[in-house]
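Recall that a protein's primary structure is simply its ordered list of amino acids. Everything else, from secondary elements to tertiary packing, is in principle encoded there. The following example makes that idea concrete.
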Amino acid sequence: MEHSFLSEQRRLLPYMGKWLLLALAVGLLSGSASAFFLFALELATGTRNAHRWLIALLPLAGFAVGWLYLRFGSSVEAGNNLLIDEIHDPKKVIPLRMAPLVLGGTVVSHLFGASVGREGTAVQMGGALADQLTHVFKLKMEDRRIVLMAGISAGFASVFGTPLAGAIFGLEVLAIGRLRYDALLACLAAAIAGDQVCLLWGHALGIHHTHYAIASVPALGLWPLAAVAIAGALFGLAGKLFADCTHALSGWMKRRVPYGPLRPLLGGSVVAAVVVAFGADRYIGLGIPTIQAAFTEPLAPWDFAGKLVFTVVSLGSGFKGGEVTPLFYIGATLGNALAPLLHLPFSLLAGVGFVAVFAGAANTPIASTLMAIELFGAEVGVYAAVGCVLAYLFSGHTGIYRAQRIGHAKPGKS
């Protein structure tokens, strides 16, 4: 028995050595790419804020990005869904051009005022760069799946500064209700490495992750928990609405406007016209200042709806970026609006909404709960978990990632 036990542990050593080295390589590539991306994004946002007239050029910027993808990126246009599909059903290595195309497309989108995020870009860069190791090390199909998952984890962790959430996101996002533990070591190591590499580059480039703080967390009690549960259900419905509307507009645009570059031109025209006419600048770009304000002061109760509409139009018409930071905005501002109705502190419900709308839209309640703990502190953990689980249950079986499969159906599915 003792000999068998020791033999089993010895067999773990080469396995661990192999995946730690691969994960470190993935983390180095993804973390470096994310740091450069964050630097470029900060530069683009600052330039747009200093030269507001750039917003008027958003339609032309959309046309240019659409044309580049039509000409050079048709094989990678599916973005995150392509990564998820390749993990489920591997066919061929992700073309390396996915990384520069999504990087350039996202920076241009932010420079000229589209309402998009950054997670999709970081995840796609991480996955595309990680998959190049398939050629270098002649990886088998099963190993390639794990490397792709590690790339997703490293990209997510490094762009938000949340290694634990990033590690679990790479496992949880693939299928509703199912985790793949065979990739746990690789995803965790890649997420930690990617986060640390991004931090090192961040110090050199003068960039840093945004910090949020929940000023007051009430003691656990029947009403605070019940109120967060009620809010969680509404957060889930908001996530479902966002995903359904984005998919519906994207499908409608593709049917009505067959020529790809015209879709972001039309969507960009709508966004630019509304921003210029009504001064709706708070609903474009990442919206970090508004997210931060949601933790400290009452905001207009329609802010969440404004961001939802602008992001649906931007992403649904073909602009590049991510969905997650807009979902953070929607969740934080919706939580801010619900706080006085539910007699909870602004900062608590803004923080729970921040992660819970994302949990519902992406079907990732565990990663979202860990993100809350990493961003806001362990004290908010129980409330975040309640909000994320209720949002997950009430968001249905749709989500922002069409390639996501159903591992175990949620309760209530017919």
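The radius of gyration is 21 Å. The domain at 222-406 is CATH 1.10.3080.10 (Clc chloride channel).
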